[in-house]
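[step 3/7] fold_predict: job queued, chain A
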Amino acid sequence: MYNYSDKPRNGLINLVKFVALLLSTILLSTLLGFYLGYAEFQTPQWMVEPTATPTATPPPEYDLKQAEAFFAQGDLQGAVRSYDQALRKEPTNDQALIEQARLLIYTRNTGKALERAAQAMTINPNSPDNLAYYCRALDWEAKYEEAFAACFCSTELHPKNADGYAFLSEIYTDLGNVRNGKSYAQQAIDLNYNNVNAHFNMGYALEVQGKYDEAAAAYDRAITLAPNVSNSYIAAGLMYHTMGGYRKYQSMKPYEVAADRFKRAIRLQPFNPEPYTRLGWTYYYDEQYGRAVDALEQGLGVDPTYAKGWGNLGTIYYARRRFEEATTAFPKAIELSENEFLRRARLLEVYTEAPAASGPVQVPILRGRFEWPDKPMEMKYTAELKVLSYTPSTDLNLEQNCAEQIAQSLRAETIIMPPDQPITFTAAFSHTTGQAVLDLNTGNLSITMTNLPQSAKKYELKIFYWPSRTDSLGVFSPTPDNQVYINVKFDEKLDAPVEYYYQLGLSYAYIERCKESEPWLLKSLELEPAAWNPAWQGLERCPSPKSPPTPIPTETPYPTATPTK
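[step 4/7] structure written:
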């Protein structure tokens, strides 16, 4: 018998060596095969991650159907987003452009509405809808002369299209000519009784005329014809709310009807703060103070940048003698109201020198329209600066109809040049791009541009505000590498409603915080020094050496929860 511990091991060692040599040979051959390209490594099936099955991109027709479905549900923002998706796939679809423009007017984004309507006009100027809604977008942007031209062109080319007459009515009423406003609205109704714009603008004319019950009835007819448009409910609700202040309408229970209209607007547009604020104000006038506060707080939850919501909430707190809470609401209302100035910014333009028949002239070469953010809380507007096209006046075709002439002017700017001189200056800007960001919180405007050519004359930057204001922001030159970096700080502000200032000042005065009340009371008197201003009562409680020398009026009653009707 062998003792395993004494057994010779040379055989086992040789076997191990042989196996190691064999494995080394196989490995070396495999590596050599990979190097020469003869071998191919196959990943085991169990190691392969499954790839996602590619999904087809929906065609633009799908997005258009989605937009129609959203609109049928009253979801205007959803419809606007669907039209954006369709236009990214088919940017020359003029029907999608004009339908989105129509909805953007409802959402108060009138700057973008005008841009979309203008794009639709350049593609298909002979469309009755494109021309009529281009007119309306111009009106909402307070470009009344151009709006008149477009609407009169609409009624000339499409005399059976009720929208042209309805929007003419709107322009006249905007300008205070109620007689013509009602006349054109009636023409629209006579042409097509089922036209919602005709009834809505008849209601608008009657409202301006002070015939609130008739205006409410007209708005209600618009609701019946288009029950998914929240603006008609808000307009009708405002009329019933106004009627609540008159004894002769009390049998109608106008505040209840107004609240109903605002609630229905909220159901259609749950992310719009306006109907919440209107509902809260109606509850306030109906002496339902708890409901009023709840509605206003819900609206501010939807959009905390809505100045009117904060102002109304502060007024209710003040009237209910909840002065501490009023001192938190009014500063927000005032800050947001004063910053409304920057919300009116519409366009940026960069001007350069160009040759013309009469000599060099300053013309815009880059233009950008400010886009609203998707979320109001972001408080930043952006504008993409794009190069403009130009055509010499000698190339204008004046034998076209009025709509085609409007489209011609929208496609390119016009410059008067000698007949034999071509336009060449625009070629230098073919690669120029730029972007502007306007921060509403800080008041800063930052602009960057690339590939801006050097020029013997400096460039000029202009900004355009709604409704009809243009400011020059100064001149500049690009850096040696043709780059531009500009920062502008805006300090100008609008005044908030005078009652915000004196109610805030009085709230501080009533809780014995006179130092904090002084600037608000004085600001209120700066805006309205008349004897009726309640700020005088606050200065009686908290005298100030800076008080203007106006006689102190009789004592203003202590605030009460019941509003004046």
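[step 5/7] annotate
The longest strand covers residues 345-354.
Residues 1-19, 25-49 have pLDDT under 50 and may be disordered.
exit 0
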